[in-house]
Amino acid sequence: MKNIFDTLLLTEIFQGLGITLKHLFKKKITYKYPYEDTPIFPRFRGVQYIKTHENGATKCVGCYLCQKVCPSECIHIVTDCGPNGERLIRKYEIDLSRCIYCGYCEEACPVDAVHMGRDYHTTDSTRDNYVINMKTLSENYKKELANAQAKGEQL
Amino acid sequence: MQNMNNNVAEIVTVNMGPQHPSTHGVLRLVVDLDGETIVNVTPDVGYLHRGTEKLAENRTYHQFIPLTDRLDYLSPLSNNLAYCLAVEKFFGVKIPERADYMRVIYAELARVASHLVWIATHALDIGAMTVFLYAFRERERVLDMFECATGQRMTSSWIRIGGVRADAPEEFFKLAKDFVDEFDGFVDLYENLLTNNRIWKMRTIGIGMLNADDAQDYGTSGPLMRGAGIDFDLRRDEPYCCYDKFQFEIPTQPEGDTYARYKVRMKELREANKIVAQALENLPEGPIMTDDPRVAMPAHEDVYERMESLIRRFYLISKGFRPPKGETYQGIEAPKGELGFYIVSEGEERPYRLKIRAPSYVNLGVLNHMAQGHMLADLVAIIGTNDVVLGEIDR
């Protein structure tokens, strides 16, 4: 009897449509990705940045620890001896096409210089652009700092 | 055409995969068919081979952790845990209680995430699309939690030899508590959609039979074994971390078919959730990294302030950990079964040999036995119930 009743009045279809209607007014859980960014958490490990001192000089001291610990061997450093015996960083490059964003460089750094940023838009058309140097890394720091200040967070 | 007149069945060999969507990765199956009945299935593995075991011989113990993420990529934190436990066994380090609890939380959330992908894809393969959407919605929340705590959704590399890299932020505990409270309702939802569903029952009951003796002989582990009625779980039988402090049940089903394994995994979801709830409730305060100087990376604050910590950090990174000569094996109950790391050390900073006992690889061996005599369409259900991940099989 109940079966006939259900069949005639299409109760199950209305039940199903009810669920659809309920979901229509719920908060959406998807994002239109290329047009809007998905929210990320503060700990997100994205493209690296290197902190600078107040006067703009890099905090990096060229100790090679990040190069040593990197499991994918994507960091290349060349240092030189300056006129007063100080260490100069001639080259500091991160090959983003090799980087696996494990955060080991950040963990290894003894002077609070290299950090994992929050930028994950790393698409590019040539391989050369994936190799970022100290200049870009310092610029990344400025960008990250500005973003963090806009959100009222600390880096 | 030649055989049309006599009744001798012709065996046709067809190729399934490696690009087939329901082979869950790059699994290639060579299937011998008699009509639509499966005579023989030969899995052809190796399409995703990256030489992880060989790479381990050229990496320090610390550097190998990110590579373990890429084994069973659906539960990276379980792999991290198994590897770190194996290395810790060499040194005999004592892990702080809070680190143990955090490891349990991460491992059980990884189990939830892995099983959610399993129920989603398994149901999708059989034809229930709705479950896929709901399960992935919840998995997204687990991955968000991982991102909040570890910085990455899937390749987390967060568990370290000697503890956990850093304490989880407050936000993680808030997200986890909310999730744990609601999760039983979500499992109810999936069960509502599937458990008494007539089509689901027809597609799963009696399919892919595996009895207890065969499960043991083939060396299977995990839900595949418990679905065949064998009560075996490393979390209870050889407790690691601090699993002996938690109250949980090991679900088993005696039937040994696809439906039984479905039920086992659904119960495991609830049990994993129960363990996370207990761990969150009883989470002790304290350090999350051991202070054993042989393995513990000193904290950042110490390195900035103290010379000794700075030297230790330089030493640990440039020289690495040097375990004593010997060999060790540590297995954990990963979502797919027993995941074990066997390491031979020659007293150097890198392993002399590292062997991974991947549960999926062993479980895949039983596929032929389970599939024989079934229809070709059921093969999809049998691969689904096997729950293999190719990153782990090919390594």
Walk me through this protein's architecture:
- Chain A is α+β, with helices and mostly antiparallel strands.
- In chain A, strand 2 and strand 3 form a beta hairpin.
- The N and C termini of chain A lie far apart (68 Å).
- Chain B contains 17 helices and eight strands.
- In chain B, 49% of the residues lie in helices and 12% in strands.
- In chain B, strand 6 and strand 7 form a beta hairpin.
- Chain B is an alpha+beta fold.
- Chains A and B meet through helix 3 and helix 4 of A and helix 2, helix 5, helix 12 and helix 13 of B.
Percentage of residues in strands of chain B: 5-15%
> Would you tell me the overall average pLDDT of chain A?
86
The rounded Rg of chain A comes to: 25 Å
What is the average per-residue confidence, as pLDDT of chain B, rounded to a whole number?
87
**How would a textbook summarize the main sheet of chain A?**
3 strands, antiparallel
Reported for the largest beta sheet of chain B, the result is: 3 strands, antiparallel
Low-confidence stretches of chain B: none
Shape of chain A: elongated
Q: Looking at the chains present, what oligomeric state does this protein adopt?
A: heterodimer
Radius of gyration of chain B: 22 Å
Largest interface: A-B, 24 and 30 residues
- Secondary structure class of chain B reads alpha+beta
What brief labels describe this structure?
heterodimer, A: 155 residues, alpha+beta, 3-stranded antiparallel beta sheet, two-stranded antiparallel ribbon, 5 helices, elongated, B: 395 residues, 17 helices, 8 strands, 49% helix, globular
Question: Topology of this structure?
Answer:
The complex is a heterodimer of chains A (155) and B (395).
Chain A: H1 2-9, H2 11-24, E1 48-50, H3 65-69, E2 75-81, E3 87-95, H4 104-108, E4 114-116, E5 131-132, H5 134-151
Antiparallel strand pairs in A: 1-4, 2-3, 3-5
Chain B: E1 11-16, E2 28-34, E3 37-44, H1 52-56, H2 65-69, H3 76-91, H4 97-126, H5 129-150, E4 159-160, E5 163-164, H6 170-194, H7 198-204, H8 212-217, H9 223-226, H10 234-237, H11 258-281, H12 300-305, H13 307-318, E6 326-334, E7 337-345, E8 353-357, H14 359-364, H15 367-371, H16 376-386, H17 390-394
Antiparallel strand pairs in B: 1-2, 2-3, 4-5, 6-7, 7-8
